[in-house]
Amino acid sequence: MSKVVKKMMLDDLRNKLDGRRDFLVLDLSKLDAVANNEMRLELAQKGITLLGIKNRLLQVILRDAGLDELDGPLSGPSTLAWGGEDIVGLSREMTNWAKKIEEVEIKGAAVDGQGVDSAGVTDISKGPSRLELIGQLAGLVLSPGAQLAGALLGPGGTLSGQVQALAEKDNEESGDAA
After folding, report:
1. Model pTM?
2. Does the N terminus or the C terminus of the chain have fewer Cβ atoms within 10 A?
3. How far from each other are the two terminal CA atoms of the chain, in whole angstroms?
4. SS (H, E, C) the chain
């Protein structure tokens, strides 16, 4: 391959990855064409991209991006996967495919630029997604307000009603005496 062609390929790959720091490295070489196409079509509908890539080209791109830690998973045939909601969703989806089709092998990942092995990808897939974490955080932030509202509307609310009734009764009595 000439240097000009290699430079064009590297530039194209850099544009496709466009600063991404979360992706998976897979081995799909044992898949038959039908299963491969089926998987790619379903993943594309979910916004996940698969790209078969030469390890040497990927190593150059990763080195330029400061992601040198991924040299371990880059042995043998490699397919890069990125996209989806977040790295948890991507890991969950690819772990499900690996369970469904035994020929799919998860070799590793990059999570915010840090290298992760295949066991780490499985652990990530079991965690909460970004949206779930935001929901949990919102629940924690709103919790004190909900407790206060519950206290005001609960037994304390009845107490304030009784205090108000007593105050009105006292006002009426003091008004009659005058």
Report:
1. 0.68
2. C
3. 107
4. CCHHHHHHHHHHHHHHHCCCCCEEEEECCCCCHHHHHHHHHHHHHCCEEEEEECHHHHHHHHHHHCCHHHHCCCCCCEEEEEECCCHHHHHHHHHHHHHHCCCCEEEEEEECCEEEEHHHHHHHHCCCCHHHHHHHHHHHHHHHHHHHHHHHHCHHHHHHHHHHHHHHHHHHHHHHHC
Sign of CA dihedral 80, 90, 126, 98: negative
Domain membership flag for residue 61: yes
- Tell me the pLDDT tens digit for each residue of 83-106: 888 888 888 999 999 999 888 888
Cβ-contact 121, 24 below 8 angstroms: yes
CATH code of residue 95: 3.30.70.1730
Same domain, yes or no, for 86 and 163?
no
**Cβ(106)–Cβ(26) under 8 Å?**
yes
